[in-house]
Amino acid sequence: MKKSISLVFASVLTLAIAGCGNNSNNAGGNSTGNKVAEAAAPADTAAKVTKIIVGTGTGFPQVCFLDENGKLTGFDVELLKEIDNKLPAYEFDFQTMDFSNLLLSLETKKIDLVAHVMEKNPERELKYSFNKEAYAHWRNRIVVAKDNDSIQTLDDLKGKKVLVGATSAQAQILENYNKENADAINIVYQSGTANDTAAQITTGRVDATLAADFVIPIVDPQSQLKATGPELSSADILYVFRKDDADSQKLSDAIDGAIKELKTDGTLGRLSTEWLGADVTADSVQ
Q1: Of 177, 3, 13, 6, which Cα lies nearest the Cα of 91?
Q2: Which runs of consecutive H residues, i.e. helices, occur in 154-245?
Q3: Please, which residues have CB within 8 angstroms of residue 176's CB and are 6 or more apart in sequence?
């Protein structure tokens, strides 16, 4: 299928642990309304192709980022290209934006699905729909400086500054804890354009962060940090859709079928190893 991925962005910036992207917001063609515009089909089939606007970011290395040539790539991006190849009825275009804007853009129908290694949790399930076939799975833990042996649990973070991305699943863990513990943890919300997590922790500006297990080598290439204590949560990684929307459900079901095929033929595991350094696709909490 003919693909169209165009990128118009304001700046190229990197990682917040859970967050992503810069504020560039026009990486996939027309972005208004529910993206159900039908592209012209080959004359020999007279089939209609539904264009889908995929919301993602540009600042999460190895997941969704701009390479040295300004090309959008990474695990989420390349996986969706493979899924698109399996679904001739759809054509995926990518629109990039800051992580904190992705879910709102889904609600307002500026995009049709969110692809940003999104964890399924109860808070998100109240407002959004998820596909059923997980394409990755990981565990969240506390991350501290390598010489810090004083922090093992969330209770140990009372009175401490903890850095997390705004609207992230890691932020939700801390917010839930604070609801039950009189805001005992000082949550520091990190912009999706920041790339200084390791520096903030090692210099003492903050005491810790929370991160999925695969993230630590990405944000800490010099191995200055370590994960500590037991896992705080286990999460399936899925795509996010509008809730109670028939077109979204049809797309979700089609994507599930494609993911199953990509698991069976080994493509999913290969992409995970290539981009994330390990196969994080095998486990599931479902």
Answers
A1: 3
A2: 169-180, 197-202, 216-219
A3: none
Q: Which residues 6+ apart lie within 8 Å of 216 measured at CB?
A: 143, 225, 226, 227
Whether 25 has a pLDDT exceeding 50, the answer reads no
Torsion of CA 136, 139, 144, 146, to 10 degrees: -80
Q: Which amino acid is at 18?
A: A
Percent of residues in the chain assigned helix, strand, coil, to nearest 5: 30, 25, 45
Residue written as tokens 């300004």? 70
Please, are residues 54 and 111 in contact by the beta-carbon 8 Å criterion?
Answer: yes
How far is 248 from 246, CA to CA, in rounded Å? 5
Give the number of other Cβ atoms within 10 Å of residue 245's Cβ: 15
Q: Per residue in 188-216, pLDDT tens?
A: 998 655 578 899 999 999 999 999 888 88
